[in-house]
Amino acid sequence: MSNRHERRASVADFRKRVSDDLSLIDRDPLLKRALAYWLASCEVGNPACIGCKAQFMDGSAEPCAYLFVVSPNIPGAASTSAFCDRCWRGDQALPVCQIETIVTRLLRLFLPGGSLEPLP
Ligand SMILES: [Zn+2]
Predict the structure, then answer these.
(1) Lowest CB count within 10 Å: 44, 62, 74, 108, which one?
(2) 63, containing H or E segment
(3) What are phi and psi of 81, to 5 degrees?
(4) What confidence score (pLDDT) does residue 118 get?
(5) How much is the pTM?
(6) How many A from CA of 49 to the centre of ligand 1?
(7) How far, in Å, from the CA of 89 to the mean position of ligand 1?
(8) Going by C-beta distance under 8 Å and a sequence separation of 6 or more, which residues neighbour residue 39?
């Protein structure tokens, strides 16, 4: 980014793209807050795909599948990560076993011994 105005416009565009078709997340207040926090952090950070490390804010990747880590030991807290569209779907998508390995490794950083569960 060359200046603050361009950065803000980029963040606004990014938020709009991410907000499309998130009806599952909208049903869960904790996940909705976690995603909002993740989006707010884009103002100061540059989130990357947890599969290929492509950065979302520079337009080289689009977030596609979100991973929310929720700890039973910390009520009301959730960590958010995302896979990009290339890693998640299409001809070059990561195999399910590789996605599970990445997700499990990330989950256990936050919650040792944690297990995966589908959205309610
Ligand atoms: Zn990726």
Answers:
(1) 44
(2) strand 63-70
(3) -140, 170
(4) 67
(5) 0.73
(6) 5
(7) 10
(8) 14, 15, 18
Residues by chain with Cβ below 5 Å of ion ligand 1: 49, 51-52, 54, 84, 87
DSSP 28-58: -HHHHHHHHHHHHHTTT---B-TTT--BTTT
> What whole-number distance in Å separates Cα of residue 62 and Cα of residue 92?
14
Residue type, 104: T
What are the pLDDT tens digits along the chain (120 aa)? Answer: 456 666 566 656 655 555 555 666 777 888 889 988 888 887 788 899 999 999 988 888 888 888 888 777 788 888 899 999 999 988 889 998 898 889 889 888 887 887 777 666
Task: Please tell me the predicted confidence (pLDDT) of residue 20.
Answer: 56
Dist. CA 77 → ligand 1 center (Å): 25
CA–CA distance, 90 with 13 (Å, rounded to integer)? 23
Q: What is the chain's Cα-based Rg?
A: 15
